[in-house]
Amino acid sequence: MRPFELDTPDSVAAATAEPATYLAGGTTLVDLMKLNVLTPQRVLDINELPLRGLDSEDGLRIGALERMGDIAAHPDVYPMISQALLLSASQQLRNMASIGGNLLQRTRCTYFRDVAMPCNKREPGSGCPAMEGAGRMHAVLGTSDSCAATHASDVAVAFTALDAEVRLLGADGSRTVSLAEFYRLPGDTPEVENDLRPGELITEVVVPRLDWAANSTYVKVRDRQSYEFALSSAAVALDVRDDRIADARVAVGGVATVPWRLHAVEEALRGLPTTEESFERAADVAADGARTRGANGFKPALLKRTVIRALLELTEGSR
């Protein structure tokens, strides 16, 4: 780890006065600094800023500095949010990591984290070894010839399914961006991962009210039961009336470069009976546009089975 200056701002205005690297839970930043993947000269510890709280009066408003473990245990959050958080990392990390930091965590691509290897995210234009190398964990949706790294956050998948927004605050004022538009596809500029501007902070996450999201789940498929990133995951909410699906929300993770909303699956589900045959038919379009490379060729089929498994879990009592 290289030397750096550490400051503790006493207000949000002071923190956003000029660009800096922000420290919240530190569960991603400190790791990457130890590996010299990130080498900031100035780090601001923002843990004392007033960016906490959860308001559930009309939807959810979650402060960016709320800890993952606390939000997972809150009785007012939708099941898919709680489950996505509980299936993330370890209890110790969930007690430290912030919601805002989780949304901004960097990819776990091994090439990105190894400074001896080229990486277009780390050094634009240097190349992407994953195109021809070990890519079992890599994305099959939203990729480009420059990058196929998966997005690491579980709860971002649930938030994307629920049309969540992030409130951003910087020296030029505040703005609100939908999470679906906040994340950037890699294209030719994989180093630009989101719409956050220099000096801006995520101050809160806003989830619109959706009463039938009480019937929701998050399914995560991984190589081991705990402390592992997703090979495939699905956040699903269903509005079921008279054993038919009136509406649906479906987003997936572990298979794409950003949290991936499956609008086509949602549309295919509407009006169908809650049968396994219906779910298999709707899931047929889940991997449309997938682009596989060698070792990750299993992911399109796994993605479809993950979506079907989540749908079956939600409708078990009605079949």
Automatic annotation (TrEMBL):
Keywords: Oxidoreductase
Any matching Pfam family: FAD_binding_5
FAD-binding PCMH-type domain span: 1-212
GO molecular-function term, one example from the UniProt record: xanthine dehydrogenase activity
PROSITE patterns associated with the record: FAD_PCMH (PS51387)
EC number: 1.17.1.4
EC supergroup of this enzyme: oxidoreductase
InterPro entries per record: CO_DH_flav_C, CO_DH_flav_C_dom_sf, Diverse_Substr_Oxidored, FAD-bd_PCMH, FAD-bd_PCMH-like_sf, FAD-bd_PCMH_sub1, FAD-bd_PCMH_sub2, Mopterin_DH_FAD-bd
Protein's name in the database: Xanthine dehydrogenase YagS FAD-binding subunit
Organism from which the protein derives: Saccharopolyspora gloriosae
Lineage, opening ranks: Bacteria, Bacillati, Actinomycetota, Actinomycetes, Pseudonocardiales
